[in-house]
Write a structure and sequence with these properties.
It comes from Sphingomonas arantia. The chain has 258 residues and is α/β, with parallel strands linked by helices. It is 45% helix and 12% strand. Helix 4 runs parallel beside helix 5.
């Protein structure tokens, strides 16, 4: 991925990781189109930054994704990077029958959203020089957070999908996977101030430094996520699952009582 001069489409760009990275890409000279479902959030994220543009998109809407893809390549013919960042996370109790609305929305946004948008833009991207697709997964793709089972499963699915996408597109489009740890954002209630989570600015700075490397690593891994990413490889999966479960519960409890 070029270190400047890209035209980047960033889903979920109105807040959290998407907003923070959009700002860093903008500041290094990239044009960024941030998309999301709330215009007010997008406007705040773009304020004062002439190279950031906004557009409304609901990745759950199949027809809207197709129409958006046609329009965005018309408006930004130099678009060469798709950054699949939008996602939601819900806590779930699997021990009794429940309403599956949250689980189904998680699958639709976190799995089908990136697949739909990638599919809608793939013919354009394969014709672009220096094209790249970035998928945002999670350390929880490798060791699940049992309190968020559908989220963890969705990120494992996109990790697998990314491997296949990279292999099929070898030599045509660069495919990069960004694997965050727990980061202080509004992804879940109280997470923005939760003890033990990585500060957003520190995370975005570390990620931007890796995107500045040449060649760009095919996996963007900050130090804080290696505990999860390497657990199975290092033969400590069960131990890490237990530690993660206990630590996450304690962090949520501590945050809730602040």
């Amino acid at each position: 991925m070029k270190t400047s001069g890209n035209t980047i489409l960033m889903t979920g760009g109105g807040s959290g990781i998407g907003e923070a990275l959009a700002h860093r890409f903008h500041d290094r000279g990239d044009t960024v189109i941030i998309v999301g479902r709330r215009q007010d959030a997008l406007d705040r994220a773009a304020a004062g930054r002439e190279l950031i543009h906004t557009a409304i998109l609901d990745v759950e809407d199949v027809a809207a994704v197709a129409a958006f893809a046609k329009q965005v390549v018309t408006d930004f013919p130099s678009l060469n990077v798709l950054f699949n960042n939008a996602g939601i996370m819900k806590f779930e109790d699997l021990t009794t029958a429940r309403d599956l609305t949250d689980a189904e929305a998680t699958l639709s946004i976190n799995i089908l959203g990136p697949i739909r948008l990638t599919n809608a833009l793939i013919d354009h991207l394969t014709r672009q020089p220096d094209a790249a697709i970035v998928t945002v997964t999670s350390g929880l793709a490798h060791v699940p957070l049992i309190a968020a089972p559908t989220y963890s499963a969705s990120k494992a699915a996109i990790h697998s999908y990314t491997v296949s996408l990279r292999t099929q597109l070898g030599g045509q489009v660069e495919v990069i996977e960004l694997v965050p740890p727990g980061v202080r954002t509004d992804l879940t209630p109280g997470q923005a101030n939760r003890p033990g989570y990585m500060p957003l600015d520190a995370f975005a700075d570390a990620v931007a430094a890796q995107f500045a490397q040449q060649p760009t690593p095919r996996e963007i891994l900050v130090d804080e996520v290696q505990f999860l990413r390497q657990a199975e490889r290092e033969g400590r999966f069960d131990e890490t699952l237990k530690t993660l479960t206990e630590r996450a519960a304690a962090q949520r409890a501590a945050g809730d009582h602040q």
